[in-house]
Amino acid sequence: MAAWLSLSLILIPWLGALLVWRTGxxxxxxxxxxxxxxSLAAGVAALVLVPLASPLVVFTLPMGAFxxxxxxxxxxxxxxxxxxxxxxxxxxxxxxxxxxxxxxxxGRYYTFVLLFIGAMCGLVLSGSLLFLFFxxxxxxxxxxxxxxxxxxxxxxxxxxxxxLIITQVGGIGLLAGALAVFASTGSYQIADLLAKAPxxxxxxxxxxxxxxxxxxxxxxAQFPFHTWLPDAMEAPTPxxxxxxxxxxxxxxxxxxxxxYPAFAPIPGWTFAVMLVGLASALITAFMALTxxxxxxxxxxxxxxxxxxxxxxxxxGGVFASQxxxxxxxxxxxxxxxxxxxxxxxxxTRDMRQMGGLGARMPLVRVVFVIGALALxxxxxxxxxxxxxxxxxxGLKHTPWWAYGGMLLGAxxxxxxxxxxxxxxxxxAARSERHAHDAGxxxxxxxxxxxxxxxxxxxxxxxxxxxxEESLPYHQIxxxxxxxxxxxxxLAPATYGALGVMALGLALGWxxxxxxxxxxxxxxxxxxxxxFGFDWLNGHTARGVHHLAALLQKTQTGQMxxxxxxxxxxxAAVLLVLWWSAP
Amino acid sequence: MSIASLTLLIGVLLGASPLVYLLGRLxxxxxxxxxxxxxxxxxAALAAWAPFVALWQQFAPTGTRSLFxxxxxxxxxxxxxxxxxxxxxTLGTLVxxxxxxxxxxxxxxxxxxxxxxxxxxxxxxxxxAGDLFNLWVWFEAMAVSSYLLVAFYRExxxxxxxxxxxxxxxxxxxxxxxxxxxxVLGQTGSLDLxxxxxxxxxxxxxxxxxxxxxxFLVGFGVKxALVPLHTWLPDAHSQAPSxxxxxxxxVVIQAGLVAMLRALAALAGQAVTWGALLLFFGALNMLLGxxxxxxxxxxxxxxxxxxxxxxxxILLGFGAAxxxxxxxxxxxxxxxxxxxxxxxxxxxxxVGALMFALFHHAVQQRPLVGDDLNGAAxxxxxxxxALSVSLLALxxxxxxxxxxSKWQIFVAGFQTGDGMVMxxxxxAAFNSVLSLGYYAPLVNRLYRRTPSVAVGAxxxxxxxxxxxxxxxxxxxFVLGLFPAIFSG
Amino acid sequence: xxxxxIVLLVAVLLLGVAFYGLLITRNLIKMVVxxxxxxxxxxxxxxxxxxVGGRAALGHSIAVTVIVAxxxxxxxxxxxxxxxxxxxxxxxxxxxxxxxG
Lengths: 582, 488, 101
Hints:
Largest sheet of chain B: 2 strands, antiparallel
Shape of chain C: elongated
Oligomer: heterotrimer
Helix content of chain B: over 70%
Number of helices of chain B: 21
Strand content of chain B: under 5%
Shape of chain B: globular
Structural class of chain B: mainly alpha
Order of helices and strands of chain B: HHHEEHHHHHHHHHHHHHHHHHH
Distance between the termini of chain B: 22 Å
Distance between the termini of chain C: 50 Å
Largest interface: A-B, 63 and 72 residues
Largest sheet of chain C: none
């Protein structure tokens, strides 16, 4: 049963992708219907699979000598993430029925969205490092294709290629790590790696651990790879919600969580993970303070929240990170989709041209506020519980300055969330644009996600119980709902954190009138260049081009020069041989 | 039995070549349709599959090399020669089918098919040569047939220029290889690959044999396009008819590599030295090929430079195998030889199909540049998809064939446990990422909504050109999902 | 000096002249001539190698084969050169370098 369900999570969306593609753009209604049907079917299958979680390999397919076996493991970690991917996927597809109505090349859009959902499920379900990487790369491919969906816009193309290249550069860490593990243990199986980790040479193991950290940071847009996600916002908004908020960017956090038991003993690893999380959370929270583009503001906040999850893993709180991942996936998808409804209605992403939209789209305002409150971490939305859990782990297991930094981040989050919400929905309208309300399909998706934002934290008992039972190496202890409530509400740290958030909110409220004013040049410059890292990316790219231009001069097209190349190579080889001969 | 199958395999192709030419000339003189010559060429290529399959069935169960005399030529059949034969037949058959419409009406069409068939037969012969001089003769004959194919558009200055450069460089290369043969003959008194190997191992003075190896490396390396011997390749690949570009990139430069490996294998006493040199040239090829491809505006020229970088991956595999004595590297490299043939063949053929459509059959009027392909997907969904798939596969993205073959090479590299080889694998991975910098934007162009002028005014693509694209696209997917098919 | 030494000397001389010629020749026809020089040097080397290795007959037969094969190459090269002269109006090598970069 679990075997078929696991397999179907990959194959149902892929079959849907094939059918949508073959349907052709001449029949958009059928394309919408097929996409919704197949993504919903995958969502149902994923929900059925969750309670069946077990640490066992449920499916095995031998792939040949160099490729090991493709195995699927549906344990607590993977089934929950697969369920998030499929459910948010289904809702994003439903939302797209309105959002993408009338777009050309709808087939390409849905094909890649469905391909992505299947690949994301494969990524988390895979029990083999090779196929983890295989699906990892397919998600990158889909992400790139969808960011550049509006190919005529050079910014969309540049954003897509940038996202692809940066995540792939980090992916080399995963590639090298997987190869090193296979070369030394002869197996790609993740379970084998976790079991044999203590016997593997520490030097090799630290290469693997830090390689995986690089891959995770690149995939989750963490420091120093945080530059690609804001530029990825050229994608259609449902894609931003699905891939760049709720699922693919979580893959990095997933990777760290999955291999935590093997890597935690490596000296310096948890500290490095914590630092990456801290730096990402603070830098991007700072950038979100001054963003004028609604989607970019949300993207910064995504990186920042992912930073919290990474920080949690650095602090040893694997469950806390996954719990926040669940909360964040739901409320950030909600925020993005609500933002999509706004952008669709108003026709711009610039928050300076919005304002007072609540009057025209009351439902969107309600759900956006729900999402915003969860993002800010106010009780009793899902973001509150999970963020407090992370902060508590941080207080217990990380240095005071790191904890202080994360608290500051929480304050900043509250501040920019209020600013963003205010600029879009409240105050007076700042432009003549006529906004139209969201369509029916959009509203269905929004309401479902809003309900999720209010309720998912209730599943803490089941989620942690599943992880305790099905992850033999992680030593996670089930945390029931009463336990969670007790732990959070009785801890004095919670009230300290709430105080910081209240401070952020108060500051945001006082400064709400100045939200549209351009920030000082230094702040603006830091934000625009992602604290200098965009500048670095640009210069690396230009450096490569300069080197290429230099080398291009060697291709002179002169026959004598070409022949000289042959002579010179022969002379060089002979010299080397003569010089190195015994 | 092998002897009959191999003779038949080469014989069918070489025998059909003059017949096709004759039929074509008659067609020109007597006003018959050229389809007779085309059909005979296709038929010959298809007929050659029968002896190939027989040969494969004889070889596969045991996996042992068979040696025999053909007349007074030493021939051998092993995995490498079968691989080369299989690659040549696969791509050759598809190219002949593709060329039917592509080359229709060109002056000298009959020569095209005759030369193509001859080249296929000669490459298969090269792969099965059992002694050094025999190897050289096949190699030289193959080279001559390819000169004529590269310079096929003789009304076109650029095509002539490319052909002339190719000929000169290739001729110098083959003379150097011949000099290497002379040294080996003088030192060992034999040219038989096995005997040379036996004598060379025990030779007191290794220096002359090392020099011979250097001559083989550089001499055959011209054809295999090792950097810095590669300068002819971008010109030749971009100026040849698209079907020939596919053959050059997918099979001919690989045949040069096979010749080099065969010759060096006879001097395998120094395998570690050759392994190190192959690794070094592999790194150079990857870097230079990728960086120069990044700067190209002409699509076919970009693909030509990408062939350089892929030769680098293949060299990495073989180099790792010789450097550390692991068979895995060679298997990975052979897998990549095969997938590269599929991917690059697909890339050149789909670009050819698009040129054919956009330029209304007048394919040689000007080079195809990236801007011409803007929005091509709307009108040419199949060709655009094929090109996209081939480019993404070349970049090594799953679930396409290039991912799996690169992975196999990388695994072999890590299994050697050698720091330098592992470093080179990571270097190769960085190169794969770098290559996305030129593959990905080209894919984006194809799917733009506003078509270029050329696409707006373009004609159709006949089914004979679509079929090879479909077959190769499917193959790229299938090998990406089920790589075990190849190892079997 | 034995006869073999003389052959060796001539072969090396021919090769040296040819290598130099490859680098400085600026005319296509002359380039074909240089290629011929190169091949002839190697043919001498082959004959010599046959003698040294104790396989004189093999050396000779190879030499003849090479000469034949090389004549074909020379013919093709000259045919191309004729076409180049027709289309470019020149045989000057620097003048036929439109493909670069």
